[in-house]
Amino acid sequence: MAQELWTAVDRYFNNRLAPEDSALRAALEASDAAALPPIQVSATHGKLLLLLARAMRARTVLEIGTLGGYSTIWLARALPPDGQLVTCELSPKHAEVARANLERAGLAARVDIRVGRAVDTLAQLIASGTAAFDLVFIDADKASYPDYLRAALRLSHPGTLIVADNVVRHGRVLEEHPSDADLRGIRNFMELLGATPGLLTTALQTVGEKGHDGLALALVTGAA
Ligand code: SAH
Ligand code: DHB
Ligand code: MG
Hints:
Blueprint: H1 2-17, H2 22-33, H3 43-55, E1 60-64, H4 70-77, E2 84-89, H5 92-104, E3 111-115, H6 118-127, E4 133-138, H7 145-154, E5 156-165, H8 181-195, E6 199-208, E7 211-220
Parallel strand pairs: 1-2, 1-4, 2-3, 4-5
Antiparallel strand pairs: 5-7, 6-7
Helix pairs in contact: 2-5, 3-4, 6-7, 7-8
The structure holds S-adenosyl-L-homocysteine, 3,4-dihydroxybenzoic acid (DHB) and magnesium ion.
């Protein structure tokens, strides 16, 4: 019952405030046709990412977890024409679908898809002295979220916004599933987020077409 209501309200919001255009719809259709898992952000969450990036006038974005590039399209659209988005994806197949989707959306020139384990890609970005990103979206394997946060902090400047998806996971708690690496990763991520000086942090529970979940947000202030 509750899920039906959440889905209906999301549909209402989507229709009024975050309508999908042909590029977004085509991206979802191509992802579906390629049998990618339908775990992309909802349209309202995609639009939230765009809105946050636009509000902070982001010129560079780092995304960890590309899938078919649906969230990538929302984020890349927030950037100025000379903006740059680097997105990390383990699966060559997902990356291929994303490449075609971004091409179709007219955003390929702004997006650099790095195929491989995100921890390795992030280490390369750090080692090569890549300039700090304005916004970081963490959305790959949940077990590695603490590693992604540590890397994101090294690729941030005062003013960088870090957003992490899926921090509630349908209310499943580690105490009841002690061997679940995803839940442990999210728990350790939240502990690290709370313990790291120089961050302005919060987290939101969300309900909607994807069930009960949540987003964590951290603004890098640099102040201790
Ligand atoms: N951000 C996307 C959804 C990402 S789903 C959207 O909202 O549209 C998570 C993605 O992370 C999947 O495509 C998965 O293949 C990828 N992934 C899983 N483990 C990874 C790893 N170790 N390194 C990089 N990507 C990984
Ligand atoms: C799931 C949802 C996500 O948003 C994600 O990034 C990974 C997995 C899920 O519903 O399983
Ligand atoms: Mg997600």
